[in-house]
Amino acid sequence: xxxxxxxxxxxxxxxxxxxxxxxxxxxxxxxxxxxxxxxxxxxxxxxxxxxxxxxxxxxxxxxxxxxxxxxxxxxxxxxxxxxxxxxxxxxxxxxxxxxxxxxxxxxxxxxxxxxxxxxxxxxxxxxxxxxxxxxxxxxxxxxxxxxxxxxxxxxxxxxxxxxxxxxxxxxxxxxxxxxxxxxxxxxxxxxxxxxxxxxxxxxxxxxxxxxxxxxxxxxxxxxxxxxxxxxxxxxxxxxxxxxxxxxxxxxxxxxxxxxxxxxxxxxxxxxxxxxxxxxxxxxxxxxxxxxxxxxxxxxxxxxxxxxx
Length: 308
Hints:
Elements: H1 8-15, H2 23-33, H3 40-52, E1 54-57, H4 65-76, E2 90-93, H5 98-105, E3 111-116, H6 126-139, E4 143-147, H7 150-154, H8 158-172, E5 176-180, H9 189-201, E6 206-208, H10 220-237, E7 242-244, H11 252-265, E8 278-280, H12 283-296
Parallel strand pairs: 1-2, 1-8, 2-3, 3-4, 4-5, 5-6, 6-7
């Protein structure tokens, strides 16, 4: 199947022909993997890897240029007192804030992601979504986080969702496209699997769980289903796609659970910021606190790292 085969009947046959998700089994496996512990040297490496995987995010109506500049500087140098601390993967902001972030991030190696396509609802005409995307790329974004039309997906209009992703991918140019499924609104694990495959067939470079703007965001079972989807998609189509859980991941303990999930489900190929990201804001501070504890033997004070 290619990005030109867009009839709803063709897509329905393919997506509804995918194996059903064993709800009990996937939740039990995710829970079991979530109990694994990582100690000492392995934990230090896991923390640094998790820092390198963070998309440091601010998506608030009250965002200011000053806040975005500070966040971008922190992305480059998360712990000013420790030059051995790695930079994060990317900064993620609204399109209007892309020029501000781009000025700080230039030459740093930290990617600049922008949400687009009428984030977070996706409720806008396609021409508006495409203009949103093109403007963000023109301003300096090298990654676009788009939202799918969940209403169209749930109504079974798979061709509309597919065609929109294809169009946004084209409008993104050389920027990587992360497709947000908003899994908390999809209703079933089977729909998460179908939406994952639909996004990948349409050309997504990453599939992302959530906007972080609905009550149910990233979960281990949902991420497990998405990891299985990218694994199976690569086996069938020969193309690797990344995964980004976002929303509700706040602690080092949480992050390590996801790293274990990757290792046990898809292996080393995805244990890299090019293929796995955390969409988060508060997670970075906890990772930095735990890193300081491992390095110095004590926790930094609560106001040692900036609040984002």
